[in-house]
Write a structure and sequence with these properties.
Elements: H1 12-20, H2 42-52, H3 58-72, H4 79-89
């Protein structure tokens, strides 16, 4: 985990901006706690951090993001697993860059 965010001190201006636009402010250091996520587009990680991470206590939000990405990130090589989950549940949320073709037969 990146410790850089622990030393950052919010200024009065930071607090004001955070109060007015909480979903627009992202400490970049909070997006880089896990090297495994370098493959994700930065805007994806920034969105997830803005949505789930509290800068004053980032660990819980980062754990939630870890769980979301572990459960929903798929590679095209896992197509049989994806198909199986869709058949079981009817709906399956996933994150990835895939090409899909529906065979209704």
């Amino acid at each position: 985990m990146n410790k850089e965010h622990e030393s950052y001190q919010f200024t009065a201006l930071d607090h004001k901006v955070q109060e007015l636009m909480p979903d627009r402010i992202i400490l970049k250091s909070l997006t880089r706690w896990n090297d495994a996520y370098k493959e994700f587009p930065r805007f994806v990680m920034e969105y997830l951090v803005a949505r789930f991470v509290d800068p004053s206590n980032p660990v819980a939000g980062q754990s939630k993001i870890d769980r979301i990405l572990t459960e929903n990130w798929v590679d095209s090589s896992e197509k049989e697993l994806i198909k199986s989950r869709i058949k079981e549940k009817g709906v399956y949320k996933l994150l990835g860059s895939l090409q899909v073709r529906l065979d209704a037969a």
